[in-house]
Amino acid sequence: MTDLATLETDLTAQIAAAADEAALEAVRVAALGKKGSLSALLATLGQMAPEERKTAGAAINQVKDRVTEALTLRREVLKSAALDARLAAETVDVTLPVRESPTETGRIHPISQVMDELTAIFADMGFAIAEGPDIETDDYNFTKLNFPEGHPAREMHDTFFFNPKADGERMLLRTHTSPVQVRTMLSNKPPIRVICPGRTYRCDSDQTHTPMFHQVEGLVIDKGSHIGHLKWILEEFCKAFFEVDSVKMRFRPSFFPFTEPSMEVDIQCNRQGGEVRFGEGEDWLEILGCGMVHPNVIRNCGLDPDVYQGFAWGMGIDRIAMLKYGINDLRQFFEADVRWLSHYGFRPLDLPTLAGGLSS
What range does the domain containing 153 cover? Predict the structure, then answer.
């Protein structure tokens, strides 16, 4: 029985020293498993005399019961400790404010917002959206738009050219979205009413110019379209975009190879107080160029200029975004500064509509 007392002492010490439930389970198997130490002692009872078996069996079972009870108590202690550790690790301070969701913290870039505003305005007038590739042919970017070879107007665009192909043709980054107008006239029959927003590229960089910028151009081709329609469309656009009740516009003669006559448009504004306000004041600010589509352009696109005529206009999206939202440096649009975007950006779900307000 001295060996039995020693075994009980050893097992009790091992149970108390178990650091986790896995270690405790190892002690249980070593003591009470099929090949455990107590199980081995019980297996020897069959070889004893009846009187000895009775005494030894009672002693071994008492030790087994005490070991089992010690295992149970230690398991409860370990479970409680594990639960306390888990609660400590997973503690949540319910008094902290809830973190804002991505739809609350994210912001739409002003350029994307203005494109959506343009789409809402012109879609309400019955215009479709037309798009084209950023990499264009010289033919679509210049020749079909009435820029003859060697014409000085080509130099005004500071074009990014690619290396010549084997046949001598040079692709380029489009300098305006006008090639989309060409593609539209070549692939669609009149009447045509589209706007063409997109990226454009020119070799220029300063406070008011960047090598890549955004333009939107509009095109109407029909049998009876005239300059009066053009003026009405531009006036309605300016009132809707700048969210004013009325605007005064001034059309000045200008020159563009692809329109004749060509005009630049100024809008009435007030520059007092360090900001520009439209629909009031005595100042004028140029915002876009426009004109009647040149007969050569209509002819180059496979249409008869004696049957069809049209008008077009174009403006810088970055420029009108700066005017509307008080942004004073064009380069800030492309610096990817999250602080700037948080200030000037728009909530993702605040989609611009004419009924609900473009910038509300």
Answer: 107-344
